[in-house]
Write a structure and sequence with these properties.
By secondary structure, the protein is mainly alpha-helical. It contains 30 helices and 4 strands. Helix 13 packs parallel to helix 19 and helix 19 packs parallel to helix 21. The termini are far apart.
Length: 978
């Protein structure tokens, strides 16, 4: 039996090697096939009860053993799908999609080459030669017989298999292919022409026998191959019995192991696990008790919220609702009895939103409609702060718009109440007959001005009250913003500290485990089981936190619930004697808070704009009938100052200047300037049309008016009250030591100019308009006076008989007076203008040039008058006795009249310059006449007569006042042209 086992084993081993070698040769393209574990282990040796050689269920439970093998050997060897069945060994288990990949060579194994065997080959070569020589001389008998038998069998099998056609051996053999089917069953045998029935039957029988013969050959070869491997099958059956013995011993070992484990469990584990089970039961009971207590507290949420709402504690009610909602979502999630409480609380929260908005609207209405007295205190500041916090908590960030609407309504009512109050005190106005707007238009300027002043004062108090309220709201928003920033800083610090605490806890747990204690004992009995009171934040207004706080030490779940609500901790800040509690659950971003603070500041600016817009409407309602345009200068100046004062007051309160009222006043000021200018231009036109261009007396008040302009400063003197002093008027107007002979129109023009300058002082916004109008007025006076005097328009307008030299000299002196004041006027306007408007000052340069040109034209006109006279008289001059001649007597007489007419009107310098020009004209005409008469300075009789006349002329002219030192240079009359 032993020998049979040995021989079968050897045969099995050889066959196995042959099989593996054939597999490697047939599948060179695939990776090398690894040898599988031997499914038939060898017979165990040693002690029969030893379990070391067999697989152990306990020790080998995570390792692959022979019992994991699920390969069906017949199926693997007889796979009909592929011709090379041995190459498809793994597809049975992993499917047809299994693809073998190349296995990378191990980095830990050296590369073996032929050179590695060189030394061995040299050593074994001699022995191999001796072995081959001995084997050839005397081969073993068994091996010779076996080899001979195998060779004969192989040759016989090969001969038999050669009889089978090659088509049956091809890998792609398939009868469904038409060519293959025709090759196996040739239809030519069945389709012969003659003897169809007999031959077909014989051919079919012959074909069937041939195929049967092929089948027999194949079956014989298969049986032969099976007989060669019979030892392996018998060895497999023997191994199966040995395997049954191993399984029986393994079962006994497992039973023994289970008995030992059961004893260990009863002795060492059952008591400890019972303690842990009872501890968990106790903890679960405590959790259940706290859960029921928490449910009882949550059940009281709605009555508590109603109680808080009855006292307007909106913030507390919202905090309680938020806490309850969080508890319902975390600790009490899934409780069937509370399935509708969440939606009820949501509806209650929406109701609170509406109540807060209505409450804030009522607060704004009561705050703004208080009597407008000098009281800037905030109305119920604590109530306002509570409302703002509640609105911020609910993210109702547009609540300031409600306040803005109330501001607009209140501004309308302020003007209406002021008008009603003022009209009721005026007996001349019938309140029942006319509407309120008509009653306001029926007021005279003093009453209307008092009404305007009252409106401005009311609006100033209104803005100060609005500012105080909005500042309180803005302070609350900024406090929340600051609280958010501080909370972020604290969270960053706590996060750093928390990481250290976690590390300490991990270290402690590791220590407890290492010492043999249970982690659950450490949590139950140690300091980790209790939570300090400062870790559990408590809410003053929340009964839920109070319910949890009573058992926070023994209730881990309650601790969790409290810690989950830690985002709602609060801090208090005192503002104006009111303690403000800032809750951390106001979920408004810093960007939204900053935008809200800016919107509140803009609301204050909007309040100023609303007041100004209302005042503009009031102002324009009164200006519809041209009332403001008809005001005199003092009244309009008073109105302008009142408006400017109100604008400055509102700018001081609100921090920004509103331009609507100032713009409306500017438009009225433009109309006032137009009317102011038209009135004075019309007045000047009437004065010029009635001016007879005679020297007028200068009243004392005009002299005082001129004297008030000192050091270049223009200021109208105040009218003296009481009895006016009787001072005689003077003949001349004294201006800085110079005498000016003027007409009455120029005196009034000077006053008009000073009125323009004074109006600029009172209303600075109309400076540029006044400059344009004043330059127009001065140009008008220049052009109109030129038309009347130089153009002789006064002959038709006034009815003068002629324009005399006195009229011309007086007109020139008046123009010079205006030119004297032009630089002072320019400096006055320049000091009150912005630098960007300095280009407008060029108007004064043009005016000065026009006036100088006009004065030069008047001087030329005076010279032209005498020039015509000289031409007329000297053209008839004859050199003959008597001396002086009548011509020269007449010339001297006209020169005396000219001097008499202008001497008192023009200063000496201008008189001398004028007579020098007249003398030059005289010499020109006299020289021309002498040339005509052929009189030369030859010392003859005619020269003597002419010299006598010239001496008479020179003596007479130099005898006139202020002309005694005048150089007449009469020698030029004898100079001949070269």
């Amino acid at each position: 039996m032993a020998s049979s086992h040995t021989s079968s084993a050897v045969t099995h081993t050889n066959n196995k090697d042959d099989f593996c070698r054939k597999e490697v040769d047939s599948g060179k393209r695939l990776r090398s096939v690894l040898s599988l574990p031997d499914v038939c282990p060898k017979e165990p040796t040693g002690e029969p009860n030893s379990l070391c050689d067999g697989p152990s269920v306990v020790a080998d439970q995570h390792r692959w053993t022979i019992y994991h093998s699920k390969v069906n050997l017949p199926a693997a060897l007889n796979d009909p799908r592929l011709a090379k069945r041995e190459s498809d060994f793994f597809t049975k288990t992993w499917g047809l999609d299994f693809v073998e990949t190349e296995v990378m060579p191990s980095f830990y194994l050296p590369v073996i080459t032929k050179e590695s065997f060189a030394s061995y080959k040299q050593d074994i070569t001699t022995r191999e030669k001796v072995h081959d020589r001995c084997k050839n001389i005397c081969p073993p008998k068994d091996e010779f017989d076996r080899n001979a038998l195998s060779r004969s069998n192989a040759e016989k099998s090969r001969t038999d298999l050669e009889q089978v056609p090659k088509i049956f051996m091809t890998p792609d053999f398939a009868l469904e292919d038409s060519s293959t089917f025709n090759a196996v069953l040739p239809w030519s045998h069945f389709s012969s022409a003659g003897g169809k029935g007999t031959r077909d039957a014989a051919s079919s029988k012959l074909l069937q026998e041939k195929l049967s013969h092929y089948l027999d050959i194949v079956e014989v070869n298969i049986a032969h191959q099976i007989s060669l491997r019979s030892d392996a099958f018998f060895h497999a059956m023997t191994s199966q019995h040995e395997l049954q013995d191993y399984l029986r011993k393994t079962s006994q070992a497992v039973k023994m192991l289970r008995d030992k484990i059961s004893q260990i469990d009863k002795v060492m584990c059952e008591g400890s696990f019972n303690i842990l089970r009872q501890t968990m039961t106790r903890n679960n009971c405590v959790k259940l008790y706290n859960k029921l207590k928490l449910m009882a507290t949550v059940h009281q949420t709605q009555p508590t919220v109603q109680l808080l709402l009855s006292t307007s504690e909106f913030v507390g009610a919202l905090d309680l609702i938020a806490t309850t909602q969080e508890v319902l979502q975390q600790e009490l999630q899934g409780i069937h009895s509370f399935r509708h409480l969440g939606s009820q609380l949501c509806e209650l929260e929406k109701l609170i939103d509406k109540m807060m908005i209505a409450e804030f609207s009522g607060y704004a209405r009561s705050d703004l409609n208080r009597p407008l007295e000098e009281d800037f205190q905030i109305l119920e500041e604590e109530r306002l702060v509570s409302l703002v916090f509640g609105l911020l908590k609910q993210r109702k960030l547009n609540f300031y718009e409600i306040y803005g609407e109330e501001m607009n309504t209140t501004a309308k009512n302020i003007i209406k109440q002021c008008v009603i109050s003022t009209v009721s005190q005026i007996e001349e106005i019938d309140a029942e007959t006319y509407s309120l707007a008509d009653q306001m238009r029926m007021m005279n300027f003093p009453h209307w001005f008092d009404l305007m002043q009252n409106i401005f004062s009311k609006f100033t108090v209104f803005l100060q009250r609005v500012k105080a309220t909005l500042n309180a709201i803005r302070d609350v928003v900024l406090l929340v913003l600051d609280k958010n920033q501080r909370c972020r800083d604290l969270q960053g610090m706590s996060a750093q500290k928390g990481s250290g605490k976690v590390n300490n806890m991990d270290t402690e747990l590791a220590y407890l485990t290492h010492e043999g204690l249970f982690i659950s004992d450490a949590f139950t009995d140690g300091p980790l089981s209790s939570t300090p009171e400062h870790v559990i934040p408590q809410r003053n207004t929340s009964p839920i936190s109070e319910a949890c706080g009573s058992n926070s030490v023994s209730d881990p779940e309650c601790t969790t619930g409290s810690s989950s609500s830690k985002d709602r901790t609060s801090s208090s800040v005192t503002r104006g004697g009111v303690e403000i509690i800032i809750s951390d659950d106001i979920k408004v971003t810093d960007l939204e808070l900053g935008k809200l603070a800016n919107n509140i500041q803009e609301l204050l600016y909007s309040a100023s704009d609303i007041c100004h817009d209302r005042c503009v409407k009031f102002l324009m309602a009164r200006a519809k009938d041209g009332f403001l345009e008809k005001l005199n200068s003092s009244e309009f100046v008073a109105l302008s100052r009142l408006v400017e004062s109100f604008v400055l007051d509102t700018e001081k309160v609100c921090g920004r200047r509103s331009m609507s009222l100032r713009g409306a006043l500017q438009s009225q000021a433009n109309k006032f300037v137009n009317r102011f200018h038209e009135e004075r231009k019309t007045k000047l036109s009437l004065l010029l049309d009635n001016e007879r261009w005679k020297q007028a007396d200068v009243p004392a008040e005009f002299q005082d008016l001129v004297d008030s302009i000192t050091d270049g400063k223009i200021l109208l003197p105040e009218k003296k009250t009481g009895v006016a002093e009787e001072r005689k008027p003077s003949d001349f107007l004294i201006v800085e030591g110079q005498k000016f002979a003027v007409v009455g129109t120029v005196l009034l023009l000077i006053r008009i100019i000073l009125e323009y300058c004074q109006c600029v002082d009172d209303i600075p916004s109309i400076t540029t308009d006044m400059l344009t109008r004043l330059s127009d007025l001065l140009k008008y006076f220049n052009s109109r006076s030129c038309q009347l005097v130089l153009g002789a328009g006064a002959l038709q307008v006034v009815g003068l008989k002629t324009i005399t030299t006195k009229n011309l000299a007086l007109s020139s002196r008046c123009l010079q007076l205006i030119v004297h004041y032009v630089p002072i006027i320019r400096a006055h306007f320049e000091a009150r203008m912005q630098p960007k408007h300095y280009s407008m000052l060029r108007h004064f340069d043009h005016i000065t040039k026009d006036y100088h040109d006009h004065v030069a034209e008047i001087s030329a006109k005076l010279v032209a008058i005498m020039d015509g006279l000289f031409d007329k008289l000297l053209s008839k001059y004859e050199v003959k006795a008597p001396v002086p001649s009548a011509c020269f007597r007449n010339i001297c007489k006209q020169m005396a009249k000219m001097h008499e007419a202008i001497y008192d009107l023009l200063p000496e310098e201008q008189t001398q310059m004028l007579f020098l020009r007249i003398n030059a004209s005289y010499k020109l005409h006299f020289k021309r006449q002498l040339a005509h008469l052929n009189v030369v300075n030859d010392g003859g009789p005619q020269h003597g007569l002419v010299a006598a006349d010239v001496a008479f002329y020179t003596g007479h002219v130099q005898g006139l006042k202020s002309l005694n030192y005048l150089d007449l240079n009469m020698a030029e009359i004898w100079e001949q042209k070269r």
